[in-house]
């Protein structure tokens, strides 16, 4: 029974991370860049998957071995650094969550015709309900797993109806016609940037899966998480590519919805509503849980009342959307900015991996250290490049 429970937690952590990544921004970014780069976007996905795995493996293993949350590790590396990292994560998580709530509102609008604002409020209440119940952790695991499988199943159906040029997609994945730095930074930021890469790692810690003896389970969960998110990205890319390659135009106000509508008519549009809502509300849960996990170790008061801080986080995100709203460009922008948080967070974890006072007698694999270091350098350079050159173009 214990083994079954552990398996459920490992899978739950993987789905929490993956569904945190698969939000409205994920759907929007993938569609926007497929329209721009066509089959060459496959190369961007390939590079981002390699970077995602390297970042995730490093961070989750170090969290498990140290048996500490990321902010506490950062404070041990340099006093005060944990508070700075927590500030970055919480700000990014809040910004993303406003977009997630917006996506949930859009999903309910497509499905039931209610206003996005009312849909957002109702979806916020659903997310809050998960954290109010006694077995919140188990319910969160099951909720993200069920909706994760629903999203993937529906996405596969739409991909096949779109009839994508798979041969060309495979070729351009390895021999791209164009390479887009902003697209790579945005995808990595949207998959393992900001709070997302810590979602599953912190969940495993909270569930008691930690220490050197748990490393095989942690590694399996980390790779599974990237695999789930990457499968969804590939299916959506192929669906969008099928539509774009037919010369059909996507609606700039809601490009992802256009893909589903062109592929399967009104049924496709309703499927988009289901996927958008599921992607959004699971991301709301993941963002709220992980953001609060970054501050709960700072004081006993926050730790004791973590449930209500999480509820408050969701409530604030919902109210901000209802009052202000969230355009498509901001979803792409936040993904890019989250990509800039990754080199800082991963860099801190790599330093911690080689400090005995944090990891004890654990020896971090050299190949993982070098892989992680390469990601820190590449993401810092690409992130800086996109900040100076790419992001301003979004607002021209």
Q: What are its keywords?
A:
396 residues, Amino acid/polyamine transporter I, globular
Q: Per DSSP, what share of the residues sits in E-state strands of 2 or more residues?
A: under 5%
At the fold tier of CATH, the topology name is Amino acid/polyamine transporter I
- The topology string of helices and strands comes to HHHHHHHHHHHHHHHHH
Q: Mean pLDDT across all residues, rounded?
A: 86
Helix content: over 70%
Give the CATH H-level superfamily: Amino acid/polyamine transporter I
Name the CATH class.
Mainly Alpha
CA gyration radius, whole angstroms:
20 Å
CATH architecture: Up-down Bundle
What is the multimeric organization of the chains shown?
single chain
Task: Decide which structural class fits the backbone.
Answer: mainly alpha
Q: How would a textbook summarize the main sheet?
A: none
Please tally the β strands and state the result.
0
Q: DSSP helix count?
A: 17
Count of structural domains: 1
Q: Give the overall shape.
A: globular
The N- and C-terminal alpha carbons lie at a distance of 57 Å
Low-confidence stretches: none
Set out the fold topology.
Elements: H1 2-21, H2 24-37, H3 41-66, H4 70-77, H5 81-112, H6 116-132, H7 136-161, H8 166-174, H9 181-192, H10 196-206, H11 215-244, H12 255-293, H13 300-304, H14 306-324, H15 328-352, H16 356-359, H17 366-394
Helix pairs in contact: 1-7, 1-10, 1-11, 1-12, 2-9, 2-11, 2-12, 2-15, 3-8, 3-9, 3-10, 3-11, 3-15, 3-17, 4-5, 4-15, 5-6, 5-12, 5-14, 5-15, 6-12, 6-14, 7-11, 7-12, 9-15, 9-17, 10-12, 11-12, 12-14, 15-17
Membrane topology: Multi-pass membrane protein
InterPro entries: NRAMP_fam (IPR001046)
Protein name: Divalent metal cation transporter
């Amino acid at each position: 029974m214990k083994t079954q429970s552990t398996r459920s937690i490992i899978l739950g952590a993987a789905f929490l991370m993956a569904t945190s990544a698969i939000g409205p921004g994920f759907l929007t970014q993938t569609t926007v860049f497929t329209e721009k780069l066509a089959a060459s976007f496959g190369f961007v996905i390939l590079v981002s998957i390699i970077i995602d795995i390297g970042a995730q493996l490093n961070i989750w293993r170090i969290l498990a071995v140290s048996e500490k949350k990321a902010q506490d590790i950062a404070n041990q590396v340099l006093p005060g650094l944990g508070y700075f990292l927590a500030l970055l994560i919480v700000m990014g998580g809040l910004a993303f969550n406003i977009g997630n709530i917006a996506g949930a509102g859009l999903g309910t609008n497509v499905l039931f015709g209610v206003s996005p604002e009312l849909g957002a409020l109702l979806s916020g209440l659903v997310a809050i309900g998960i954290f109010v119940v006694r077995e919140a952790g188990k319910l969160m695991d099951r909720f993200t797993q069920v909706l994760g499988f629903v999203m993937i199943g529906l996405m596969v159906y739409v991909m096949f109806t779109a009839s994508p040029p798979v041969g060309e997609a495979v070729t351009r994945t390895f021999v791209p016609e164009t390479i887009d730095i902003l697209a790579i930074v945005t995808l990595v930021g949207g998959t393992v940037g900001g709070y997302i890469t810590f979602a599953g790692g912190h969940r495993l810690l909270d569930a008691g899966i930690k220490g050197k003896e748990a490393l095989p389970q942690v590694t399996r969960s980390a790779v599974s998480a990237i695999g789930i998110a990457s499968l969804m990205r590939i299916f959506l890319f192929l669906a969008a590519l099928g539509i774009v390659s037919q010369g059909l135009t996507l609606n700039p106000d809601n490009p992802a919805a256009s893909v589903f509508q062109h592929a399967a008519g009104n049924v496709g549009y309703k499927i988009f509503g289901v996927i958008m809502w599921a992607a959004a509300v699971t991301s709301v849960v993941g963002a709220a849980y992980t953001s609060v996990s970054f501050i709960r170790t700072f004081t006993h008061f926050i730790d004791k009342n973590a449930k209500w801080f999480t509820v408050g986080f969701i409530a604030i995100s919902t109210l901000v959307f209802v009052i202000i709203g969230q355009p498509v460009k901001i979803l792409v922008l936040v993904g890019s900015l989250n990509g800039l948080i990754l080199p800082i967070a991963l860099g801190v974890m790599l330093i911690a991996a080689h400090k005995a006072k944090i990891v004890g007698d654990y020896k971090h694999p050299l190949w993982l250290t070098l892989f992680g270091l390469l990601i820190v350098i590449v993401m810092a350079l690409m992130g800086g490049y996109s900040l100076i050159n790419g992001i301003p173009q979004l607002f021209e």
